[in-house]
Amino acid sequence: MLDKTYFAGTYVGNLSSLAVDTDGSLLALSDRSALFNLDARTYRPTGVVALADESGRSLDSEGLAVDRDGSA
């Protein structure tokens, strides 16, 4: 359902990790340096954040955790 689609110009695929946010929504981490917010019922993306290091280079993130304060 999510693979091989685009959201806000960002490829949705190669997801390496999922986590439940404190509000019940889902977060999905892509191997292509993107963090997606997903609707918990439909699993469709509702937002995306590009991930980069302090030099602006893409990250190859593999894991995701949500802290009690809601930070990921």
DSSP strand content:
35-45%
Q: Count of DSSP helices? A: 0
Report how far apart the termini are.
24 Å
Category from helices, strands and their pairing: mainly beta
Radius of gyration: 12 Å
Oligomer: single chain
- Helical content stands at under 10%
Q: Provide mean pLDDT, rounded.
A: 86
Q: What would you note in describing this structure?
A:
The mean pLDDT is 86. The chain starts with a strand and ends in a 22-residue tail after the last strand. The relative contact order is 0.26. The protein has strands spanning 5-7, 10-12, 15-20, 26-30, 34-38, 45-50. The radius of gyration is 12 Å and the shape is globular. The protein is mostly beta strands.
Essential attributes:
72 residues; mainly beta; four-stranded antiparallel sheet; two-stranded antiparallel ribbon
Short description:
The chain is an all-beta fold and 72 residues long. The protein is 0% helix and 39% strand.
How is the secondary structure organized here?
Elements: E1 5-7, E2 10-12, E3 15-20, E4 26-30, E5 34-38, E6 45-50
